[in-house]
Input
Amino acid sequence: NSKVIQTPRYLVKGQGQKAKMRCIPEKGHPVVFWYQQNKNNEFKFLINFQNQEVLQQIDMTEKRFSAECPSNSPCSLEIQSSEAGDSALYLCASSLGNSGNTLYFGEGSRLIVV
Amino acid sequence: AQSVTQPDARVTVSEGASLQLRCKYSYSGTPYLFWYVQYQRQGLQLLLKYYSGDPVVQGVNGFEAEFSKSDSSFHLRKASVHWSDSAVYFCAASIYNNNRIFFGDGTQLVVKP
Output
């Protein structure tokens, strides 16, 4: 059973609506990742955090996507204005943070934009 | 550029047969290498990982993988597959001083009864 908790498991949004997903990393893991997995199983890295600070993010994330990992609260990924192309499985993962450390994944939040 | 390639999008084997899923990587130096499995488009579960040392690493559920620096490969193997092994398998890699992991596009394994 996954120790990374993602909610909700499914969300359906209309185009232009906000979509927000949450992630509780495994206890003691300071690094959190967000990946987008499309229907072709391709992974796209979105952003990662160490504690509350952004380590890396892609350009897409800087536009309509926002993410945060506040202390003592779940991490979140929010899409400000959903587009059909955002329909995907959003996977959160956490790790101890050192190079080569294993990523532990949640079950994902499946976003459908209609 | 750093990349991980899984040349087979889909592999079909009969239950009880042996299995090899291929993975090639393109990195300068030796990356950290992983195999993950994904059932029914849920979260990914780690099967095994390689950092250094013995090039053959053992994983869960009878899986093993062999690292080859000369071939830039990290193929996954299993001696005898079970129907419950049907899933999508992802090869992944990361490099020293970079938390980010790069994934291949996955190989869907179908085990026929």
User: Anything to note?
Assistant: DSSP finds no helices and twelve strands in chain B. Chain B has a mean pLDDT of 92.
